[in-house]
Amino acid sequence: MRALLLLLVACCLATADAHAEKRVALVIGNSAYEKVARLPNPANDAALMAATLKSAGFDSVDLSQDLKVGDMRRTLRDFIDKAREADIAVIYYAGHGIEVDGTNYLVPVDAVLQRDVDIYDEALSLDRVMVTVEPARQLRLVILDACRDNPFARSMKRTLASRAVGRGLAKIETTSPNTLIAFASKAGSTASDGDGKNSPFTHALSKHVTKPGLDLRKAFGYVRDDVLKATGRRQEPYVYGSLGGDDVPLVAAKAVAAGPQADPQAAVRRDYELALQLGTRDGWQAFVAQYPEGFYANLARGQLKKIAAEETRNAAVEKARLAEQEKARLAVEGARQSELAKAGAALKAAEQARIAAERVKQFEQEKAAASERARLAEQEKARIVAEKTKQAAQEKSAVGKPEQIAAFTPQPGKSEQPAADLPRALQTELRRVGCNTGAVDGSWNDASQKALDLFNKHSGLKLDAKTASADALEAVKAKAGRICPLICETGYRADGDRCLKIVCRKGYELSNDDTCVKIEVRKPTAKREEPKQKREPSGRAKVETTPAKPQASGQIVCDRDGCRPVAKGCRLEFGVGSAFTLGRTGNREVCN
Fold first, then answer.
1. Gap between the Cα atoms of 151 and 441, Å rounded
2. In which element (H, E) is residue 106 found?
3. What are 307-328's pLDDT values in tens digits?
């Protein structure tokens, strides 16, 4: 039964391959005109469209640039044989076009067009192009980014006053079914070359027309919206022709296979991580060229901005250093005050540029770090979804099997970690990603739990930090590089995985917040004289001037005036009445 099923699948695949659409394209870009000013963008536009169609899986894409009239005729003649064997035939042209007496013409690079009648000999009519794609069986598409402001029309002599030379291209009516003709701008108006490397029309084309499963009419609608927005509604692309009721995509929708699928972002993520390890401008530019759209493309552009900010900062630091050296040299050589002032102004401007570059660099670094955390969180989310999908598929396939077969078995490619080794292994991995600064001793203590909490904070995960689990170990192993930021002690700064000592240049010192601040030069101040101290009297004088302390016998006598010590040489007599005791028995002081 299984063999029969495989045979049926193979037959279906063979039938699908046999009926796969054959798509061919001819791309022409004319920039280097000999008699009028060169057009900057058509060569770039043609190269972009050729790359777009090749990446869309076209069977044949012919790219030709800067064609003379004879070369254009031969190129169209050769392409008609390919169109005859194809289901879909596409011709894209970028360059000058002109309309004479309601007929549109494509202008080769060697055209002179001194007179209006020269158009018949020195250019190719759009009708000739339509004949080239006509043999295609299902779809015939002609795209013209040729509605530019044409210098030939301004200098051309008229042999007949009634012969009209229009602005832009003329409206066209198609005679063949399933034929579309797309203009960069609607009939009678001109198109813009744009300020960038590509024209607004071709840039929008490369984004939309080859999206799998997207109907061409809707794709050109998106192109129209993008061009209107890019040109401030001054240029509106237009499409002539008609198609049937069914969707007609230039690239068929990808078949969705049943059952769990492999991660579609796996290849992109792998290439991104390789570019991240390389960390150079060339590496990121190659990644963006390979993957121009999507989440990882935006992350790569953020990395490029970070590198640009670092380069700007380095240039500003070097400029400030040179300005400071120049000022010091002028001061040593005794230059004039005006030159010193000019050097001081240059130094100040360079210092301000350096500070601004430092801020931009810090901003881009923080932005790149945030993007990297978002990427890691997205990667972890995709991994969890993939594991759940795989587990669900395994549970589904296990339905109906004997119970003893469903016993737990380790997953292929994963070695079962003994429970006793889990804490030590997890501590080691946490140290690798920069979250564990404690000892790797296999004891899951408070320091280890804090390390896992720190990993959760910077990775966006919610792992249980109370115990060392296999899930936590796998999650930490999945991280390719440092997760927790490097924290350096006072006087040092983080540089990758190292702490470097902060060194300030001459004239600056390190402040408490680890920044270099300019040393303030304090002006000398006049000292105030302290008043002279009075001389202490000599020891003998001290003795003579010190009043004698009253001598006491240690006894106390009390009367109506209070209590006092008995004077030296006196005594107390007990049992004798006094005025204080009012006739009662008491004590009194008796002196010799």
1. 80
2. strand 103-106
3. 988 888 888 888 888 888 887 8
Containing 571, the helix (H) or strand (E) segment is: strand 570-574
Helix (H, G, I), strand (E, B) or coil at 566: strand
End-to-end CA distance of the chain: 145
Cα 236 to Cα 65, 228, 233, 465, distances in angstroms: 26, 6, 7, 59
Cα–Cα distance for residue pair 537/493, rounded to 1 Å: 63
pLDDT of residue 406: 37
Measured distance CA(429)–CA(556) in Å, rounded = 86
**Pairing label, strands 508-510, 498-501:** unpaired
Beta-carbon contacts of 47 under 8 Å, excluding residues fewer than 6 positions away, are 29, 63
pTM over 0.90: no
Q: Which residues pair with 180 in a beta bridge?
A: 141, 241
> Up-side HSE of residue 158: CA atoms within 13 Å toward CB?
11
What is the bridge-based pairing of β-strands 516-518 and 508-510? Answer: antiparallel
- The per-residue pLDDT for 383 is 80
SS3 content of the chain, % helix, strand, coil (to 5): 45, 15, 40
What confidence tens digit (pLDDT) does each residue in 344-394 have?
788 888 888 888 888 887 888 787 788 778 877 877 888 888 888 877 877
Q: Is 28 buried (19+), middle (13-18) or exposed (0-12) by CB count in 10 A?
A: buried
Share of the chain above pLDDT 90, in %: 26
CA dihedral 159, 162, 163, 169 (to 10 degrees): 150
The residues, any chain, with a CB within 8 Å of residue 565's CB and separated by 6 or more, are 550, 552, 553, 554, 555, 556, 557
At 100-136, the pLDDT tens digits run: 888 999 999 999 988 888 989 999 999 999 999 999 9
In this predicted structure, the answer to whether residue 222 has a pLDDT above a threshold of 60 is yes
